[in-house]
């Protein structure tokens, strides 16, 4: 009989969830299953997970609490990497996790360090879930990862890294000197595997990082490795604020429009990272986060330099499978 | 020139504030001043503080941020023991404290251990202020104290402790077995004086306690010390919930009525303490609180037994100066 911890992962086909699934399987110390909606079972991305030998548990988060509790039977650790538009659907999952005796719930965090309330809509909705968890005294760990290497590089005049860029750009925000916590998306799952097996992280917030870099430092690395000179576009603090306010106004007129929500997320990320300069270790420590690199000094993350070297070698991949 | 830390206390004439003022003055290691509203300067309670040699700083919290910043000049530690109806007025104080370079802000907490959001209106409004603090990266310490000895004793058939009872009663809630964190109100200031001089409590939550007792344990102590048999009134979980829901409904119809707010506070306290059973060390630890008794093992708090012995000796005092 297996004595491995049984881990159930929700959102395994997403960008963050895929990394977590890989990390859990590679760790070879968990019994891993994935939670999928009935409507998603036949999707190729889900079938592909199944073909890797990962058992599926099938349930809608809108199911009755009884059904959800039954779906969670035997699970020790529940990890949610649900999509940004569905965060509040975790409420029923939190209640079911409490009833099912889940030993650790990892809610969908996996973003930058930001104030708990009032700066980023995406963070505010996560806070609602964290408060639900705390109200139920459900054991938890919040894992934030900063911004990904994969969406933190400028494009080159030659165009040779455009293939891996979500939105090709060469923008410097403000003076380009705000330090930011960066994690390679492939490292998220490797970090998560360590964190969920660690008693020290129970009922704690943890942040991961591969590098702490400013945009100017990123430019230096990119120019050095590529031998090209990046054509900088500067965006001022005032322009950043204006774009964010416009996005917020637009969403307030049509709050159900996913495209408008995404624009709010994106512009608020930029405001938080470069104007408020939230996404850095000092603020994480102030907010009570543990530093995953201090917890796991032997962990070798993928540095931005290694990541960009791979990009130049044509080994990059555009995030979100696009 | 003094090298003492300069402490400014808001709400020094209140029940909690008076204890804090006494504790700060007795500690003899701080330069203490109090912050009062212009309209309060001539009140006897304020003049009495002045007559103890404590300097007054006079400002309305509704003043401009510039004026507030100027009022806070030279202050190292700012402690707020503002009244429960005015909690949100601390928003401007938080912003001014950041601008004035306050080294530690102690917002008005000083209540029971409770969920950050959704269980107690009083706690919810404090959370808004904590989030404002965190958004500004203002150094802070939250100090919660559980419930006071002074409002946690049952009355005796002889009536001899009624003189010190806020609301004489002999009610047992539920089965009377919920443990509760209790602090003698006179110890709050003594604890606060230790906590604000301690680097370990910076940007942390701390709870104080003199005793951890259930209502049944309190009854045992009271009956043993008095030699009287308390006539128990039992209130069921359902009755507690009904009273709370009625109070909430009543407030929702007239949200500005202070008496209705107080009834919501009182009934939600009872629900949180005895139905949810939030106010205990296990939940405090889960929520990330430090235990003041672990931090200060030499601290001798006033036990409930000592407190009730004083009551029987006629040395008690009704809280809130009534």
From TrEMBL, chains A, B:
Pfam families: NmrA. One of its GO terms (molecular function) is oxidoreductase activity. The keyword GTP-binding does not apply. Residues 3-307 form the NmrA-like domain. Keywords: NADP, Oxidoreductase. Gene3D superfamilies: NAD(P)-binding Rossmann-like Domain (3.40.50.720), UDP-galactose 4-epimerase, domain 1 (3.90.25.10). The keyword Cell wall biogenesis/degradation does not apply. Transmembrane segments: none annotated. This is NmrA-like domain-containing protein.
């Amino acid at each position: 009989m297996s004595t491995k911890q049984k881990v159930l992962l929700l959102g395994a086909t997403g960008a963050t969830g895929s990394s977590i699934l890989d990390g859990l399987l590679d760790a070879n110390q968990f019994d891993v299953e994935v939670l999928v909606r009935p409507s998603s079972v036949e999707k190729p991305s889900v079938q592909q997970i199944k073909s890797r030998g990962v058992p599926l548990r099938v349930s809608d988060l809108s199911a009755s609490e009884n059904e959800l509790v039954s779906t969670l039977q035997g699970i020790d650790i529940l990890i949610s990497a649900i999509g940004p538009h569905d965060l509040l659907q975790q409420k029923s999952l939190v209640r079911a996790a409490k009833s099912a005796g889940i030993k650790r719930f990892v809610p969908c965090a996996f973003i930058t360090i930001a104030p708990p309330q009032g700066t980023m809509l995406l963070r505010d909705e996560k806070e609602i879930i964290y408060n639900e968890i705390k109200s139920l005294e459900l054991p938890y760990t919040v894992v934030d990862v900063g911004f990904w290497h994969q969406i933190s590089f400028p494009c080159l005049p030659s165009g040779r890294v455009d293939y891996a860029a979500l939105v090709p750009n060469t923008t410097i925000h403000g003076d380009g000197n705000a330090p930011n916590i960066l994690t390679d998306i492939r490292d998220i799952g490797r970090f998560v595997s360590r964190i969920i097996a660690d008693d020290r992280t129970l009922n704690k917030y943890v942040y991961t990082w591969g590098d702490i870099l400013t945009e100017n430092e990123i430019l230096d690395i990119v120019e050095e490795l590529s031998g090209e000179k990046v054509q900088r576009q500067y965006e001022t603090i005032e322009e950043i604020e204006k774009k964010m306010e416009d996005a917020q106004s637009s969403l307030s007129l049509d709050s159900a429009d996913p495209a408008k929500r995404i624009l709010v997320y994106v512009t608020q990320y930029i405001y938080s990272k470069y104007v408020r300069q939230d996404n850095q270790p000092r603020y994480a420590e102030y907010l009570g986060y543990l530093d995953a690199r201090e917890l796991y000094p032997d962990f070798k993350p993928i540095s931005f330099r290694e990541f960009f070297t791979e990009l130049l070698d044509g080994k990059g991949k555009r995030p979100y499978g696009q």
